[in-house]
Amino acid sequence: MCGIVGYVGPQDARDVVLEGLRRLEYRGYDSAGIAVVADGALSSAKKAGKLANLEKVLAERPLPAATIGIGHTRWATHGGPTDRNAHPHLSADGSVAVIHNGIIENFAVLRAECEKDGIEFTSETDTEVAAHLLARAYDAAPEGEGRLADAMRTVCRRLEGAFTLVATAAAEPDTLVAARRSSPLVVGIGDGEYFLGSDVAAFIAHTREARELGQDQVVEIDRHRGLTVTDFAGAEVEPTAYTVDWDAAAAEKGGYDWFMLKEIAEQPQAIADTLLGRLGVRGELVLDEVRLSDQELRDIDKIFVVACGTAYHAGLIAKYAIEHWTRIPVEVEVASEFRYRDPVLDRSTLVVVISQSGETMDTLMALRHAKDQNARVLAICNANGSTIPRESDAVLYTHAGPEVAVASTKGFLTQLVACYLVGLFLAQIRGVKYEDEVSAIVADLRRLPEAVAQVLAGMEPVRELARSLADANTILFLGRHVGFPVALEGALKLKELAYIHAEGFAAGELKHGPIAVIDQGTPVIVIVPSPRSRESVHGKVVSNIQEVRARGARTIVIAEEGDEDVVPYADHLIRIPRTPTLLAPVVTTIPLQVLACEIADTRGLDVDQPRNLAKSVTVE
Ligand code: F6R
Q1: Cα-based distances in Å from 616 to 286, 329, 355, 608, 619
Q2: Could you tell me if 285 and 417 are in contact, meaning their C-beta atoms sit under 8 angstroms apart?
Q3: Which of 491, 500, 3, 593 has its CA nearest to residue 258?
Q4: Is 4 helix (H, G, I), strand (E, B) or coil?
Q5: What's phi and psi for 376, nearest 5 deg?
Q6: CB-CB contact of 67 with 176 (8 Å)
Q7: 260 found inside a domain
Q8: Which of 53, 69, 128, 240 has a Cα at 20 to 30 A from 352?
Q9: What global pTM score does this model have?
Q10: Do the Cβ atoms of 398 and 251 come closer than 8 Å?
Q11: Are 495 and 392 in a shared domain?
Q12: Residues 182 and 303 both lie in one domain
C-alpha cells in the first residue's frame, strides 16, 4: 500500500525521490506525486495512474532542482484514484506539504472544523485535513529550531487511526519531519544525507544504515543538525539503529521478465537462508533468537497461528506439522477475524503471527490483542525492522530477501520452513520426540533446497500447460491433509494474478456440494499425497480424481515420482520428488506458482502488480 519517500541532502531530490518511488512500486498504488522545496516555495506535481504518468507531467512542467523532497504512491482509500486525490497535499496557504499512509479515522470531524474556519478542500482524502491542521499548528508554533516537528506533534495528538505522515515546509529547506502510528516508516542515514521510506527498498541503493521508529513517534531530520526523535508529547527517545542486510541488487529483476519469476527461482537459496545457522551439527535445532525461556516453551498448552492470505495458508499447513510433532493443540485463524470473536488466551498460549512484510495491519491488530490478553507472541517475518517483529515477544526471521512481486512466493515457502523449525524446536524442548527423530526430520529439511531446485528445473511442461489454460473461466484445486491448504494457496495465486475464478477444496468435501460445478472440460488440479502417507489418504485422493474425471473434468495431477496409481486418470501429470508428507507442500506449491504466473503472463496481465492489490496491506 501507499509508498512514502523523503530525502534531504546534496543530491537532486527530484531524482532520489522518483527513484525511491520506483523501488516502492511493488507495494501497489494507483496514483503518484512529488513535492520539493526550492527558493522558499513548495512545488508539486501529481497524477493518477502509474509513475510513467507522473514522469510525463514532470517532463512537460519540470519542478525546480532541490535538495529536499517528498514523494508518494497512493493506494486509494478515501476518495478515488484521481489527480486531485493524489498526494502530496498542500495546505491552503501553500506553507506545508504532506504525504500520508493509513487512515485518519476522525477526519470527518476535523474536516468540518477546518471548513468552519473557511478552508476550502480540494480533494476527498482524509490526508488533506492533516495538511491544513499542520499549517495552522506551524503558524502557532514558536519560531526557530524544531518548529515543524512541534507542529507535527500538535497535529498527531489530534489524529485517530493509523498514519505515517511526512511533511516539508516552504520556509524550511533543510528540514523533513515525519510521524508514525501503526503504519510503517524507516529512516536511512547516508553520508550527509537522510532518507525516509515506507520500507528500506526506498533507499537501499544509497545506504544500509537505518533507524527504526517506534509507535507514536515523530522524527525531525535537519540536514545540518541530524536526527531527533521524540514521542508525541515531545520527550526525546533513542531510535533503534540497524543495518539492512539486503543489497540493492536483490531488489532488481536480474534479467527476469517479472520479479515474481525471479523470486520463484530464488526459492532454493531462500529456504537455505531460512535454515542457515539454525540446524546444529548433531541434527538439533538452534533457535537462539526465540527469546522465550525453555520453561516458558514447556508451559505452552495451546497455540494460535494468526495471519492473512498466503501467510494464513502457511499457518494452516503448520497446524498439521506442529500438532503432529508436539501434540499441542493448534488453531489457525485469519487475523482480520481473530480479535473480534474474543478468543480464549492466557499466559500459556503461544500466538504465532506470520507476516512477510511485518506491516499487515490486520495481523498487527491481532498481535496487540493477543498481548493485551497476556499471551506470548512469536512472529515469523521477512522484513527486518518492521512493526510486527518489533512488537512481538520473539521473532524468527525468514531471511528470504526482498519480495517485490505482490504475489508471495519465496515468502510463503520460507514461512513454511520457519513454521517447521518452530514445531520441531518445541518438540525438542518439550522432549516429545527422541533426538534421533528430530535429527531425521532436520536431515529432511536440509534436503529441501535441493528438492525445490529439482522441481524448478522441470517446469517447462507446466508453462506449456499454463498457456493452454489461459482461457479457462474456472479452475478448481483439490487436496487432502497438507494438500488442502496447498489447494487453497494455488487457487489464491490464480485469482490474484490471472483474475480467473478459482477455488480450493478439501478433496473429501467435493461430494458434499462443489462437485456440481464440474462440467465438460473444467480444469481440476489435484495435489496428490505421497503413497506413503497415513491411512490411505493417497488412495482416497486417487478416487476423487476418478470422480471428477467421470463428470467431464480435465484432470491436472501433481504427484510424487513413482506414483503409478494416478497415471490412468491424469490428463496432465506433474511430477515432484519424493518428500516426507508434512514437508511436501514446499515442493507441491511450486507448480501452482508457475502456473498462475504463466497464465497471467499469457493473458497479458501485469504479473508483479495485479489490479486492486497492494503488497503491504497497512489498513484494516
Ligand atoms: C498473496 C499475498 C497476500 C499476503 C497477505 C499477508 O500472494 O501475498 O495474501 O500473503 O496480504 O501479507 P504479509 O505476509 O505481508 O502479512
Answers
A1: 30, 30, 10, 13, 9
A2: no
A3: 593
A4: strand
A5: -95, 140
A6: no
A7: yes
A8: 240
A9: 0.81
A10: no
A11: no
A12: no
Query: Is 371 part of the annotated catalytic residue set?
Result: no
DSSP 529: P
Can you give the residue range of the structural domain that contains 308? 253-446
Taking every pair of Cα atoms in the chain, the longest distance, rounded to a whole number of angstroms, is 82
Residue 349 confidence (pLDDT): 97
Q: Ligand 1: which of 312, 357, 593 to mutate, judged by most atoms within 8 Å of the beta carbon?
A: 357
Q: Does 308 sit in the ligand 1 pocket, CB within 6 Å?
A: yes
Q: State the residue for C-alpha cell 507476516.
A: 355
In the chain, the percentage of residues whose pLDDT exceeds 90 is 83
The per-residue pLDDT for range 137-196, each reduced to its tens digit, is 999 999 999 999 999 999 999 999 889 999 999 999 999 999 999 888 999 999 999 999
Residue 31 has pLDDT above 70, yes or no: yes
- Among 317, 404, 617, which is best to mutate for testing ligand 1, by the most ligand atoms less than 8 A from CB? 617
Q: Which three cell numbers stand for residue 500?
A: 480467473
How far is Cα 471 from Cα 602, in angstroms, rounded to an integer?
Answer: 9
- Residue 618 falls inside a structural domain: no
Map grid coordinates 515457502 to a residue. 413
* Last residue within a domain, chosen from 250, 272, 307: 250
- Domain count within the chain: 3
Question: Could you confirm whether 2 is annotated as catalytic?
Answer: yes
- Ligand 1 centre to CA of 146 (Å) is 39
- What's the gap in Å between 152 CA and the centre of ligand 1? 32
d(CA 469, CA 477): 14
C-alpha 33/C-alpha 40 separation (Å) is: 20
CA 506 from centroid of its chain's CA atoms: 26
The C-alpha cell at 302 is 495451546
Q: Pull the grid cell for residue 309.
A: 492470505
Distance CA 94, CA 447 (A): 61
- Indicate if ligand 1 lies below 6 Å from the C-beta of 382: no
Q: Given this model, what pLDDT does residue 236 score?
A: 96
State which ligand 1 atom lies nearest to the alpha carbon of 383.
15
Cβ–ligand 1 distance for 356 under 6 Å, the answer yes
For residue 570, pLDDT over 90 is answered with: yes
CA-nearest residue, atom 3 of ligand 1: 309
Ligand 1 near 522 CB (within 6 A): no
Torsion of CA 267, 270, 274, 279, to 10 degrees: 80
Q: What stretches of 439-553 adopt beta strand conformation (E)?
A: 474-479, 501-506, 523-527
